[in-house]
Write a structure and sequence with these properties.
Layout: E1 31-36, E2 40-46, E3 51-56, E4 63-69, E5 85-86, H1 88-95, H2 102-111, E6 119-123, E7 132-137, E8 142-148, E9 164-169, E10 190-194, E11 199-204, E12 209-214, E13 221-227, H3 228-232, H4 241-248, E14 260-262, E15 268-275, H5 289-294, H6 303-311, E16 325-327, E17 330-333, E18 339-342, E19 351-356, E20 360-365, E21 382-387, E22 396-399, E23 408-409, H7 416-420, E24 426-429, E25 432-435, H8 442-452, E26 454-458, E27 463-468, H9 472-479, E28 492-498, E29 504-514, E30 517-522, H10 525-538, E31 543-546, E32 552-557, H11 561-565, E33 569-570, E34 586-591, E35 598-602, E36 611-616, H12 621-632, E37 637-639, H13 642-651, H14 688-696, E38 700-707, E39 718-721, E40 724-735, E41 740-748, E42 757-762, E43 768-775, H15 785-788
Parallel strand pairs: 15-22, 26-37
Antiparallel strand pairs: 1-9, 2-8, 3-7, 3-9, 4-6, 4-8, 5-6, 10-21, 11-20, 12-19, 12-21, 13-16, 13-20, 14-15, 15-19, 17-18, 22-23, 24-25, 26-32, 27-30, 27-31, 28-29, 29-30, 32-36, 33-34, 34-35, 35-36, 38-41, 38-43, 39-40, 39-42, 40-41, 42-43
Helix pairs in contact: 8-13
Length: 789
């Protein structure tokens, strides 16, 4: 080919960037998605020509639909159908007093709908496969109430209630915005629209709530406020993020104990009550004229000028740049101290709910930056609602099982009120509020109570999934690393669940309730999603349904746990006697006698001690706790929190997701190679080939370390042999029993022998080192003689 001196020309126009986005951000215009939680219901307004598609997400969930016309009269003709059944399931849900249905009750009352006179349409059966969809066409204007009815689940019956997904395709999509505002959390006091590239100032009384919503997603909003009484006196004391970071020890406050923003006088101005996004900024200022001038956009509209104009009527002095809370602004500091920004995490309808701690003058902007990814390259609107301080809003953070999932707000477990009598120190854990430690004892006292007497702990956030159907054993045998065919009824097995490359999805316990009945208890929601996906891919006759909200549990652990529970647990004659319950066995039981509260008791735990777990429906949690608490007074029963749990599980060598393993860690590297019986399990399972290869060619090993220093060691600290890093600390604690710092660490197999001297790097890993050596694993009771006793 002749050299021309010109570069090679690629033919054709440029191709757009390939970007994969969550489903909520890629819905076609005029399409809306709603999730009806199991034992829940929603109300949707509809118009002629709209289409509804209802999907039975997990299978086996009945659906009840009530339609009403514009006058509130029950009329299935709104959907072009006839119906004769009564809305018994929906009425039972509303009569149950569930606080999550408060908004639905208000909507029904406001429209004058009489459910007793409204006929209901019923869809789906108990045997309906997961993913089954029914489509309905709206004939005329009205409202539709869609329910996923279900009663209290029997702990041993697996009759759980599961979600439905509703997709609404509008006949006449909105012209301006792609997404509808979510329903108000309660009756608003004010509705304030902050249009794109503007700002609005507003007054909020002490105690009232401020909800700041991202209408279309990926939009930043700067927020600032003043104590009104100070501003009236001419004192310019706006919210100060530097003061806030100093006082709260967080980059930005979140719902919980560290949830307040302060001014320079150290006066708290607002508290964060709820947050569905989870990523904000409290480092950079609101965008200003100088910023745009300096990057080549002179005269660009900016939040600072908008703030100055909006606040002028309230007496706030103008500034060349405003410090602010930048809600939904996605910034982070890297390891080199460089601040970088990217598109917001916020989805359409995401919000932050604040509570005013004094009378406030507030201002909110809809950031106009279209020169960077700060607003997803497309600035849109922000919406503000205020609510009365009498509303019973609870602190909550949103979590999603997958990127496509709808957010679920932090909940209180059925045992929450019982433990709240002993502490106010609760932290968000996996979608629930759990006690971190207790006032009377503290974590050290709780630790010793577990090792010497007995403790009770709330473990309700563990995810439970009911796996039922004729192919359930075959599915479990393929999904889990253990040989499930050898698991007898009433048995429990600890197992791993892996991806095809051998990395772990989760670890947990599998219960066998019957020949075709299993219960998986793991650490995350995605485990259930994965199991369900694999069942569908294989075409197996099996249902995989979530029971987490129907089955809450406490752990009763410690040397005296058996003597304690013997006083309250009754088992039927055809079930094992409580004292006959062996390690990793379970039984359905009741409190005190044949007419008592139904429970399931398993001889399992996460402490390295003799112990049990007791499961029940949330409505029975108080009765279960009270019975155990009363019986425990002769056994030193102590409430037990997350801080103490971390101590005892590290001593016992029990691993924790996100610390000791991830999807890049196989079971051998996580120290649980015993859960992968490659020689004895003849059936194939997901990840088998990869695990054979990894076992034959190991790279890393989980080991125990003793550290010859009282300096704290943390997760992620580097482990060195001379200059070279050969591993990292996964978990660590100062052991009260051993009187020294200990840790779990994953190290290169070339340096994993017992007795090997290593060093843990602090600061930059080189300027400060802590001497350590590898010791037998686990540090406490390595033969597990205590839980077997």
């Amino acid at each position: 080919m002749r050299e021309t001196g010109f570069p090679l020309i690629r033919p054709g126009p440029p191709r757009p960037s390939a970007i994969l986005l969550p489903r909520a951000l890629t819905l076609p215009p005029g399409t809306e998605r709603y999730v009806v939680e199991g034992a829940g219901a929603i109300l949707i307004t509809v118009s002629a020509g709209d289409a509804l598609a209802i999907t039975n997400d997990e299978g086996g969930q009945p659906c009840e639909i009530v339609a009403a016309d514009a006058s509130g009269r029950g009329d299935p003709g709104v959907l072009g159908l006839r119906a004769e059944a009564r809305a018994e399931g929906l009425m039972a849900l509303l009569a149950g007093g569930d606080a999550s249905l408060r908004g639905l009750r208000r909507g029904i009352a406001a429209r004058g709908i009489d459910l007793a006179q409204a006929p209901a349409l019923r869809l789906f059966e108990a045997s309906t496969p997961a993913g089954t969809r029914e489509t309905l066409q709206v004939a005329r204007e009205g409202v539709v109430i869609i329910a996923a009815p279900g009663g209290a689940m029997d702990p041993s019956a697996q009759d759980t209630a599961t979600p439905l997904t509703v997709m609404v395709t509008r006949a006449s999509p909105r012209a301006r915005h792609s997404f509808a505002l979510p329903d108000p959390l309660a009756d608003p006091l004010a509705e304030i629209r902050v249009h794109s590239a503007t700002a609005e100032a507003y007054f909020v009384k002490a105690g009232d709530f401020i909800q700041i919503l991202d209408v279309d997603g990926r939009q930043c909003t700067d927020f600032q406020c003043f104590a009104a009484r100070k501003l009236d006196k001419g004192l310019q004391r706006p919210l100060d993020v530097t003061t806030t970071r100093t006082v709260q020890h967080h980059a930005y406050p979140m719902p919980g104990l560290h949830g307040k923003y302060f001014d320079q006088d150290l006066e708290p101005l607002v508290e964060v009550i709820q947050d569905t996004c989870g990523r904000h900024d409290a480092f950079v200022m609101a965008c200003a004229a100088k910023y745009y001038d300096d990057i080549g956009y002179p005269g660009h509209v900016n939040c600072t000028d908008n703030f100055n104009a909006a606040l002028a009527p309230f007496g706030a002095e103008p500034r060349p740049g405003w410090m602010a809370i930048n809600f939904f602004f996605n910034t982070a500091l890297d390891a080199h101290g460089v601040l970088h920004a990217d598109e917001p995490w916020s989805r359409p309808g995401d919000y932050v709910l604040l509570r005013a701690l004094t009378d406030l003058v507030c201002v909110s902007s809809a950031c106009p930056d279209d020169t960077t990814a700060a607003n997803g390259w497309n600035p849109t609107d922000i919406h503000v609602r205020t609510y009365s301080g009498t509303e019973p809003f609870k602190r909550a953070i949103a979590i999603r099982a997958t990127a496509d999932s709808e957010p679920k707000m932090t909940k209180e477990t059925g045992f929450h009120a019982c433990f709240a009598k002993h502490t106010g120190n609760f932290v968000e854990y996996n979608g629930y509020w759990l006690a971190s430690s207790f006032d009377a004892t503290g974590a050290i006292g709780e630790y010793w109570a577990c090792r010497q007497k007995s403790v009770i702990m709330d473990l309700s956030p563990l995810r439970k999934f009911e796996i039922t159907g004729p192919d359930s054993e075959a599915l479990c045998q393929y999904i889990f690393t253990r040989d499930v065919r050898k698991l007898s009824e009433g048995g429990v097995v600890y197992t791993a669940m892996c991806y095809p490359h051998g990395g772990m999805i989760d670890d947990g316990t599998l219960f066998r309730l019957g020949r075709d009945n299993f219960r998986w208890i793991g650490g995350n929601d995605y485990g259930g999603e994965w199991i369900r996906e694999k069942a569908a891919e294989l075409g197996l006759q099996v249902l995989v349904r979530s029971a987490t909200d129907q089955l809450h549990n406490v752990a009763v652990q410690g040397p005296e746990s058996r003597d304690l529970l013997r006083k309250v647990i009754w088992t039927a004659p055809h079930r094992p006697d409580f004292d006959q319950l062996e390690w990793f066995r379970f039984t359905p039981a009741r409190l005190h006698g044949p007419d008592g509260v139904p429970v399931v008791v398993s001889r399992t735990g996460y402490t390295g001690e003799l112990g049990y777990e007791v499961m029940c429906h949330p409505r029975d949690c108080e009765a279960v706790f009270d019975a155990i608490w009363a019986a425990g007074q002769d056994h030193g029963l102590t409430p037990f929190g997350l801080e103490a749990l971390d101590m005892v599980r590290i001593e016992a060598g029990l691993i924790f997701a996100g610390y000791d393993f991830s999807d890049q860690t196989d079971p051998f590297e996580a120290g649980i190679g015993f859960t992968v019986p490659l020689k004895s399990k003849q059936d194939d399972f997901i990840g088998r080939d990869a695990l054979i290869r990894r076992k034959e060619h190991p790279a890393r090993k989980l080991v125990g370390l003793e550290i010859d220093s009282n300096v704290d060691v943390g997760h992620g600290d580097c482990v060195h042999l001379g200059r070279a890093q050969v591993g990292e600390v996964t978990s660590s604690m100062r052991s009260p029993l051993l009187g020294k710092n200990i840790a779990l660490a994953r190290v290169d197999v070339a340096h994993a022998e017992i007795g090997t001297a290593l060093e843990i790097g602090k600061l930059d890993g080189l300027q400060k080192r802590l001497p350590a050596r590898i010791v037998p694993f686990a540090h406490y009771d390595p033969k597990k003689e205590r839980p077997r006793s």
